[in-house]
Design a protein that fits this description.
Elements lengths: L14 E2 L6 E2 L1 H10 L5 H8 L4 H7 L16 E3 L5 E3 H10 L17
Antiparallel strand pairs: 1-2, 3-4
Length: about 110
């Protein structure tokens, strides 16, 4: 499956163009819904410039978990000492009273099953 506008093959949610009923990625679908026009090529190109998440992580400037060093989480938390933690490390520490083992680290955020 691919977006009929930007040709993306991966998206958190597939949408449809209301006139043609062709599939749209989440970004193109939301842009069309909010602005009544297709997403411009500059925005599509801006999304494509990050070649891979591993390469971009090295240059990433932003929040980082003080325990597992991830940059991606649904919610940022604080430890009792004030350190910034990802959701997984923060919840694990609060419930078990000890740091989350690094062997449990995953590269993707998993939804509840």
């Amino acid at each position: 499956k691919s977006c009929s506008h930007c040709h993306a093959t991966s998206t958190p949610l597939w949408r449809r163009d209301p006139t043609s009923m062709k599939p749209l990625c989440n970004a193109c679908g939301l842009y069309l819904q909010q602005r009544n026009k297709l997403r411009p090529q500059e925005l599509i190109d801006a999304d494509d410039d990050g070649s891979s998440s591993e390469e971009s992580d090295a240059n990433y400037v932003g929040p980082e978990c003080s325990h597992c060093r991830t940059h991606h989480t649904s919610v940022w938390r604080r430890s009792k000492t004030g350190d910034q933690l990802c959701n997984a490390c923060g919840v694990y520490a609060r419930l078990r009273g000890k740091p989350r083992p690094l062997s449990l680290k995953r590269n993707k955020i998993r939804p509840r099953s």
